[in-house]
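SAMPLE LOG
Freezer: B-3
Tube label: C17
Construct: single chain, 108 aa
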Amino acid sequence: MTRCTGLKFKNEKVYRVFDLGTNIEGKRPDLLAEILNKATGKTVNEILSERVFKPLNWTNTGWITEGKNNLVCDIHSPDSYPTLRIGSNIGDGRNLYVSARELAFWGN
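STRUCTURE (predicted):
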């Protein structure tokens, strides 16, 4: 399943702007989170925590809702200070964090 819907959402209307999976336009992690929640009764965070993070004993990967002293900001604009993008912890936002070591395991 991909977050690349090829759809654009504007004023409660949906428009197809690219073929499915060919462009990042229309990325909607909130839709993916809602589909998974309705199908399983669990959040993206709960599913990954139960099936990936805990079985692999990963302790530096998860979703956060507030900053921590060991996190590095992922956005840097020359016109402002770096910031953290933090939202809900259900998996519908951009607040997955991971250590470099555990990120290497993701890639492997």
